[in-house]
Amino acid sequence: MKATLRAWARFTERLGVRLAFLLSVALLPLGMIALSQTWQMAHDAEAASETALLQRTSSVVGGEQAIIHGALGAAGALAQSVLENISDSAVCSDMLREFVVRSALYSFAGFIPTSGRMTCSSAGREMDLSEDPLFLRFMDAPRAQVNATKRGGVSAEPVVLISVPVTRDGVLLGMMTMSVPHRILLSLRSGIGDESAVDVVLLNDQGEVLFSEPRPFDQSAETLPRDVPVSRLGPHMDQPIFRGRDGAGRDRVFAAVTAVPNLVYVLGSWDPDRAQLSRDLISPATILFPLTMWITCLVVAYAAVDRLVIRHIRDLRGEMRRFALGRRDQIPQVPRHAPSEITDVAHTFQNLARIVMRDEAEREASLQEKTVLLKEIHHRVKNNLQLIASIMNMQIRRVHEPAARSVLKSVQDRVASLATIHRNLYQAESLSAVQADALLGDIVRQMSTMTAGLGQGPQPETDFDPVSLYPDQAVPVALFATEGLTNALKYATRSPEGGQRWIRISLKSTGPARARLAVENSAGGELLAANERTGIGTQLITAFAGQLGTEVERIDEPDRYGIAIEFEVAAFQEGIQQFPQTAQGKVTGTPRDGAGH
Predict the structure, then answer these.
(1) Is residue 503 within 8 Å of 458, Cβ to Cβ?
(2) How are beta strands 461-464 and 503-511 bridged, if at all?
(3) pLDDT in tens, 188-209
(4) Residue 493 burial by Cβ neighbours in a 10 Å radius (0-12, 13-18, 19+)
(5) Of 597, 168, 253, 217, which Cα lies nearest the Cα of 410?
(6) Which of 10, 119, 305, 521 has the fewest CB atoms within 10 Å, i.e. is most exposed?
């Protein structure tokens, strides 16, 4: 978040951005007035076009609306006649049959009492409708209802069912129901000129489809909007006009109007080209004209400033950036045809660059000279240490007492390890760091070569991760490994009879700026003498661990023994080498035969 704010602050400080902001403020009042007037005009035009579309949708279904209204009135009138003849089902049925034949609009009329057993109907037969879902719905909410079914019980064709409650003295006696076939509704379409541009779906107050045209009733889902649930259509519509795709995937404009209040609603699906909404007819250029003028003014002003000032500043910034990134192969160039103020700045930077390049060349030559001298010092120290190791080797050959030979050999190994460190330093590209994995590898190879000739132990197995150390850490790490490997080579020979002897040394990265050095060997059942367990090797190992700010970890198991340290790798912070705080070297446990005295 802070980085984003800083980037935005840098962006707003640009000359072009500030100029664009000032021009925007100056043109804002005129732009707001123009936008307000244009927006109000578009809003009024849109409201008028939506009203016209709702009226056109309502006129398309004028015939269906008249039939449903007539059916509701006829059902109410028939209910009174049914009450007068309800005691004689034959007379009642004849009356309803005669009404259906004369009207030619209805395929069925019948009275269903609250018991659900219909004995008075135009079909002239008794029917048990007590379990019919429409009858049960009516009994739950006795009121006028309009429903539809794909197959009428008498006509065996899709029909619209109009039902009204029949009461006497406030007591519900049943329901009067009438059926209007879909074919009647199709034949009575109003025939308005743009009728072919709209698909019509009639819905009841429950959001159920009553009738659809031109698609068949059972394919009405292709006319309904794809992303609006059926339960949200009808009286539950949030807005009367909206856009979307129908079930067939076509882009449509949907208009919802009321056909019969609280009972029947009409959803018209219009082709967008025929709907003629104002949002489609008003040119976008008319609405966006003020914004276009505002943007044009900003572009012209910015182009002028960019050509006169910003372009030259950008070129000068590029020269400075290349120089800052270390590209010093040529003197920075002065922008051509720039204003005099910018030219003066460019000449000043050019002179500064010449001075810096000269001083850097002198410092680089001095640094190269010092580097050569320091490498030579490391090389001579290495040669002197190797000379000392060779002299000690000659002395070892003259000494015949085993204890003295062992002590001299131990000192020789330590001197050889120091020589190996200095050899790595003068061979490394950077004098401030040592590759610990390469250093330990050299020490292992050197000690393995010496012990192989004497037949004193197996070849060590190595597993090193690439870890860079500073010389102040590389020395105790190398000496710790030397002591541990010396002891491992010495005591790995004490394995059980028939057992395999082995030695392992590893350096692994255990986390950010942390490493673990471990030396392990096979171990038998023999223990060291008391004076060996507290010898100089243990003291040195403890001291080296303390220099690294850590403690020695003992690995003491029946078949193996080892020592390990986990330490923090030193890092530089603001030019100061930071080392972990030195801890008091503390060893826990009693060492066995193996990687430590």
Answers:
(1) yes
(2) parallel
(3) 664 544 555 788 888 888 888 8
(4) middle
(5) 597
(6) 10
Contact residues for 317 (Cβ-Cβ < 8 A; gap 6+):
none
* Pair of tokens at residue 287: 């609405």
* pLDDT score recorded for residue 596: 42
Convert the pLDDT of each residue in 71-98 to its tens digit. Answer: 899 888 888 888 888 888 888 989 989 9
Please, how many CA atoms are within 13 Å of residue 456, restricted to the half-sphere of its CB?
16
Which H/E stretch holds residue 226?
none
Question: Residues of the chain whose pLDDT is less than 50?
Answer: 190, 192-193, 525-534, 574-597
60/50 Cα distance (integer angstroms): 15
**Whole-number pLDDT of residue 583:** 42
Q: Residue 424: which residues within 8 A CB-CB, separation 6 or more? A: 434, 435, 438, 439, 442, 474
- Sign of the CA dihedral with 316 first, then 320, 322, and 327 last: positive
Q: What is the dihedral of CA 44, 49, 51, 53, to 10 degrees?
A: -170
Q: What is the reported pLDDT for 60?
A: 81
**Secondary structure of 264-290 in the HEC alphabet?**
EEEEEEECHHHHCCHHHHCCHHHHHHH
**pLDDT tens-place string over residues 458-501:** 788 999 999 988 888 888 898 898 888 888 877 775 555 556 78
Instruction: Tell me if 109 sits within 8 A of 119, measured CB to CB.
Output: no
Backbone angles phi, psi at 326, to 5 degrees: 100, 5
How is 478-503 classified by DSSP, letter by letter?
HHHHHHHHHHHHHHTT-PPTTPPP-E
For 314, the token pair is: 């950008």
3-state SS, residue 142 = coil
Q: Pull the structure tokens for residue 504.
A: 């392992």
CA angle (259, 264, 269) in 5-degree steps: 70
Can you give the pLDDT at residue 252?
86
Tokens of 51: 């009203």
Instruction: Please state the pTM of the whole predicted model.
Output: 0.43
